[in-house]
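Data availability excerpt. The first of two example chains:
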Amino acid sequence: KVYGFDGLFPRTIRDLTIRSGKVSRLYIRGNRVLYYRPVGYFFLVVTVLFIFMGLLGVNVTEYMKAAAGGMGVQQARAGSGQERLTTSILQVASENLKWVSFMMVPFQAFCSRYLFFRKSGLNFLEHNVLPLYLQGHLYWLMVIEVIYFKWSGHALSQAVTVVMLLYYGFPYADLIDYQSRIKAFLKGVGVCIAAQVILMMVFFIVLVVLILTLPEFREMVRP
């Protein structure tokens, strides 16, 4: 019963797959017994993913390189400073994957609360519930992608991105009830896209500061 396999765990997986918005709405309204708490569920599924990758012998950094390539990111010339910089970034990201993903949540909550669903009546902390559940549940999709990567050496990045965008749209259509489901769906997709854009902008600013202040970073970006 430590991990709720008496019914709590399978119920959480089932309902987050088909009605994530409903799960989040019940949690926000005070129901704490039907489902895993969002933070606990997030870290539980992340742990399962890393155990699974370890059992398969999948290198996280190589997997992330394949995922970036699958999204059309151009690979730097072998042995160049750009390749060393890219490898260093991916290495840090792979070692802190759960925290990188966890860091996305407040950006999503910000976009939801202050950009897309300002009239929802939910405060900022309540807007974190659904993104936490979604980010955690999407790691099951990564488990499938890791299996494919182990078998083929390639990542299903574009397909995963499409599924992720759709998966963000439908829950917001369930959670938000003051506007049409279609509008809430489109705004939910917007939450996902906007949060990633803002996070990438923050990352880019940090990278520029590092390049301007640290000689080893400037050396890496030279042609």
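And the second chain:
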Amino acid sequence: GLFAYNQNARNFSGCFSSCIGLVGIPERLFANNPNAGSFGDDYYRIGCFSYCSNLINIPEDLFANNPKAGNFSNCFRLCSSLTSIPVGLFANNPNVTDFSYCFESCSGLTSIPEELFINNANVTIFNGCFKSCSGLTSIPEGL
């Protein structure tokens, strides 16, 4: 219930950036924030969970109630302990335009879900999205 009373919050970029002790994210953390538009920042290269080097998993419904979200740049940048990405992580975010550096340097990632961006038809920027993800063994054809 951390943000339960903040329905008008619009920007969560850098919110938990550099929280190196963070290992998990509560499910539905942003469930009461339908007006959230940004979980990332291109200018300062910080995202909501960037530099959380001990973060090991992401709940699939984390952004399920954030249909206005348009920016996930740098969101999970340098989360080197992440080993996987939930298939439906961005399924309810049809207005996203920017995924630049979203998972950059997530060296623990071993795969990318094939349908990760299937509902994100408005994206114009994927620059560096999986840059330096040295643990990846393949890239899905449909991506």
